[in-house]
Amino acid sequence: MVQREELARVRAHFEGQPAEPLLNWALGEFHPEIALACSFGAEDVALIDMLCRIHPRPRVFYLDTQFHFRETYEARDRIQQRYSVELLQCLPELSVEEQAARYGPGLYAREPDLCCQLRKVLPLQKMLSRLRAWITGVRREQAPARAEAQLVEWDERFGLVKINPLVKWTAKEVWEYLRGHGVPYNALHDRNYPSIGCEPCTRPVKPGDDPRGGRWAGFEKVECGLHTKPA
Length: 231
Hints:
The protein is α/β, with parallel strands linked by helices. It is 37% helix and 11% strand. A six-stranded mixed sheet has the order 3-2-1-4-6-5, with helices on both faces.
């Protein structure tokens, strides 16, 4: 069993290799206490395709905020039909109606950090408490907050190993993989939505603009809290 202190050695071993050998090692080391966190964005569906080529039943979960676009749920259904993978739905403790009753309607427009905490971070924390490792589609070029992400690292915030197989990939490489393997993806990507979150908090961006510029428009917020390091 790999120890926290050995992660630098593991990282060095897989540096410069394709994503698949790292995924194969991670599944061998941690399965069944490892899962992919899937938002049904381009990176995550690419990882589902890779995982299903390596393992007959990889574990995949998604945070269902109940504010997702219709197209996101449609992408989920197409992925479910294409691959033999169980997609575990992780729901917030409060329904949309219960949250509105407790905090007032439109919390996402007034206090987006709190809304993300309730509908994303806390459900993720509950899910990760059952695992020893998780896999993400984080890429360094996505945002400044992700620029120092590593292939394999210790997640201080949630207390487990974090595997980022695509961390050095470019958006071009992700799309070459999706098209080369015929992977189903969210139709919003074809409508100028490079980064897709909850419907009330996500807007399309102009070609050439910051890919995450459509997230939480009008706020200084740039991350939902899933991939930020503790203060």
